[in-house]
Amino acid sequence: MNGLEAFDARLNALIGNLSPAARKEMARTIAKRLRAGQQQNIKRQQAPDGTAFKPRKVPARKKKGRIKREMFAKLRTAKYMKAKGTNDDAVVEFAGNVQRMARVHHFGLRDRPARGGKEVQYEARRLLGINNNDMEIIEQIIISILN
Q: Which of 74, 95, 116, 138 has the smallest CB count inside 10 Å?
C-alpha cells in the first residue's frame, strides 16, 4: 500500500463524514466548475488535453459574405451541456437529442449529416474529459468544503 492509497482512503473517510446535503452541494459545485471548463475547451476548439480539434473538411466560408459559425457553438450552452451532482458523484453530460451527435464527434464515428444523405466518417474530437487543471479545481473545492 503506497502513500497515495492511504491518502485516498483518508479523504474518502472525511468526505463520508459530511452530511448527504453537504456532499450533494459539493458535487453540484464541482460539476458546475467542470462544465465551465469544458465549455471553455469547446469554445477554444481544444480537446481536454490541449490539442486542437481537427478542422472541418468543408471550408467554413463557401460563398462571399457567408461564414458558418464555429463548431459546437450551441452544444456548449447550458441547455445542452448539463451539470448534475448527487451524494456520490458529479456528472457533466450532454442532454437530449445532442447526445448522439456529441458521441459521433467525440469518438469519431460514422453518421449521416442530413436525412437521406451520404454517410460521413467524422474525425475524433474529444469534447469532454478531465485534465490536470480540472483535478486541481476539484481538489481546491474539496479542501475548501472540508475546512
A: 116
Those residues whose C-beta lies under 8 Å from the C-beta of residue 10, and which sit 6 or more positions away, are: none
Which alpha helices (DSSP H) does the chain contain, by range?
3-16, 20-43, 98-107, 132-146
Q: What is the pLDDT of residues 84-93, one digit of tens each?
A: 998 888 999 9
Grid cell for residue 80: 445542452
- Placement of cell 456528472 in the chain: 91
CA 99 – CA 37 distance, rounded (Å): 19
Residue 69's domain spans which residues?
3-146
CA gap 31, 105 in Å, rounded: 22
Q: Is 136 helix (H, G, I), strand (E, B) or coil?
A: helix
Q: What is the structure's pLDDT at 1?
A: 47
- pLDDT at res. 103: 94
**How does pLDDT run across 36-82, given as a tens digit for each residue?**
999 999 999 999 998 998 887 765 556 666 666 788 888 999 999 99
How many separate domains does the chain show?
1
Q: What is the C-alpha separation between 93 and 124, in angstroms, rounded?
A: 18
Yes or no: say if 114 and 103 are a contact pair by the CB < 8 Å rule: no
